[in-house]
Amino acid sequence: MMQGREKQLYAVETFSRLLELVTVRHRLLESASETAHLAQLYRNVASELGFDDFHLYLRPVQFEVAEPNDEAEQRPVFITAVLEGDASVDRFTPSHLPLSIQELDENQIGRFSFSSEEAVIHLMNRPSIENLQVTLASQVTQKNALISAVKLVCLCRWAQRATPPAESEAAFHSDKDVKFDSKRGSETNKVQQKSDSSPSKGSARAPTTTKERLMEAFVSIQLEKVGLRDEMLNSFLKKKQAVGGLIKTLEEAAAIKRRLIINFLNKFSTQISLHCVRAQIVAYYNSLTSLLDDVPSIRQSHFVFGQAGEPEVILDSGADLCPDPWSFRRRPQQLLSADGKTLLNLWFIPHFSQVLHMFSTLNVSACSAALHHTLQIVSALHDIFHYLVSFSRLGNTEDSLAADWGGAEGVGAELLEIQRQVDRLSHPSSPECVGRLLQLRRQVLLLQFDTAVRHLIREAFLSSGDVASYQSVSDNMAAALPLLSDSIQTDVFSLTLPVPRPLETRGCQAQRMYPWRSFIACQGSFPLHVWDVPPIEYCMQLCLSGLSNRSRLQANAAILGVSLLMEDVLNGGREAEPVRLRGNKDDHLHDGKPDEGDKVCSEAEAEETCVSAAAAPLQDPIRVQSVLKGFLLLTKQLQAFKESWAQRRLGAQVFRTATSYHQFVKLYRAEVFFPSMRALAQQMGKERDYEVFISGSQCLLPPPGASEVDVKTWQVQYNY
């Protein structure tokens, strides 16, 4: 008979198991429902491309009756390599759509019921809950596989439709090789004149029609699973033989099955994620091509396009290729080398069929790394170009680029500067370093616009008494700016089941302790989308919509003011970063990217390989962009503190009229700015000089010689 503390612990443990059971059941029902809808979309896609429904299903083979399968069948890279009469395709089609776990083990792990109170009580133990957790993991993996397959076909179809008719027709008949000048051709002795897009073994010929190229984008769920499932069954048989052919208890057998199934799901997720990454690459290249169509001068002078069916020059990472850093044209028609370890041509835009063949000869882990580096580079380059074009369009009501806002010349100059920064990297051919540089540049541009809109533009309108323009920008930015950042979007779920305080939603501890809550809070209730390219131009136009031409000129001047502040920071040669208030290493004040000193998160190691600790602070391009990003985050942090202080001190209506804003400015200078600057002057050893400096001035100024970073940092620390 349990008593006292033992009874309380038992009650808490029982209640915890009940909560876990209810949560797993809810998530399992949700995943099964979404899987059913996606399965119907998958069948429709398969039917349109001429494939049957059996590619969706895997014939169940139970652990207990499995036979050894020593034949290591090579899975075809593309579905077009599988002939209709190929024995590797099983034409099994069940009468209904089963749970994913029932294809792996329906006798033990997949056997459960919620139909009665007795059945639920039977599940109130640790092994049963672990079985349900494995069941949920299997169903979520199946759902992700289906949406990856549907997404890849849909995006390739859209990319094909976006191909100009003349270019598409030329692609059918193009068999000319890439041309290099004679000097560079003599230096590349390791160039192999063969196509990386050659069909896989078993394929009769290379695809020549649109439908055949789209068929290569089709993903057979059965073929993706069957090889890994056979490996799992072989591992179970080996473990069974190791104990004399007999596993003593059902619990021991279930534990072995759970471990093997989880291992199978991890491998299957990694394998199927390759298709999802390829789909994202296709989407970004498709969007970038569409943007370039509106700027033909940039398209012709800066970018090189691949065509369907065009043979590629296969360049190894060891090839002695030295492209001219001042030329956009004389570069190979490949983004990365065949092994994915060397950047060859940042400005090459491949055809979607070429994306499908990228790194297809590598093993899964190497292919995954190469594709992720490609996505990192492509997504950043797309967003940078999208921002530049969108910014140039802010000055016009039409689609043309305004010269006052940069114009086509400004876009081209920025692209040339990006190439120069890449050439100044310590490892300019490293995909990791180039991807990191472009990602930082993307974040700096978006933070620059965010800072201008939130801070300088609105302050300029209030200072001049233009309350209507201030209110218009304030209302519009509330919906637009969050889409340009990775800030947490509050929804019903995040309000009802948030990550417990004091953990940060994106923190590593939260991801370990509350993975589901953290993931949903960061990614939203529907984290997977077919089209997930950010609407940069829409958000930027929305922020300034409703402004007159005169107000837009003021906004342009404010954005230029942010650029001048950034130049001052670089000229000062100081590091800059946001203030960490609580010393919490789990804080993520850097757009979800890990810190340089955070050894827990993964990207820190990649950044350390690009920038050594002994590097000159403001000479390496990555360090320059890191400093600019830190300064803009610090500025954004200070603005948030100022608004919070104003509302606590003067009320919520402080920024509604010009009079109240001027009252806030006077009060803030007296109670925050002056004390913080006096403390800064004291720290610099110039307190007496500072008092003399401001004694004869009506406006308060920072201490002479103080950097902009120090001025903002001391205000934030004083506010806190």
Question: Which features would summarize this protein structure in a list?
Answer:
720 residues, mainly alpha, 3 domains, two-stranded parallel ribbon, 2 strands
Q: How does this model look, in words?
A:
The protein is mainly alpha-helical and 720 residues long. It has three domains: 12-167 and 201-283, no CATH class; 294-489 and 524-656, no CATH class; 657-720, no CATH class. Helix content is 59%, strand content 1%. The chain has 24 helices and two strands. It has helices at residues 4-49, 117-122, 126-162, 165-173, 182-187, 210-215, 221-242, 250-293, 296-302, 352-357, 364-393, 407-423, 431-463, 467-480, 492-496, 508-513, 515-523, 536-544, 549-572, 603-610, 621-650, 658-684, 687-695, 708-719, and strands at 304-305, 348-349. It has a two-stranded parallel sheet. The relative contact order is 0.07. The model is unreliable at 165-204, 587-609 and 611-616 (pLDDT under 50).
* Terminal-residue CA separation: 54 Å
Number of helices: 24
* Order of neighbouring strands in the sheet with most strands: 1-2
Order of helices and strands: HHHHHHHHHEEHHHHHHHHHHHHHHH
Uncertain segments are 165-204, 587-609, 611-616
- The portion of residues assigned to helices is 55-70%
- Look at the helices and sheets and give the structural class: mainly alpha
Q: Report the sheet with the most strands, covering strand number, pairing sense and barrel closure.
A: 2 strands, parallel
- The fraction of residues in strands falls at under 5%
| Extended strand count | 2
Q: Could you tell me the radius of gyration in angstroms?
A: 30 Å
Average pLDDT metric: 81
> How many separate domains make up the residues?
3
What is the approximate shape? globular
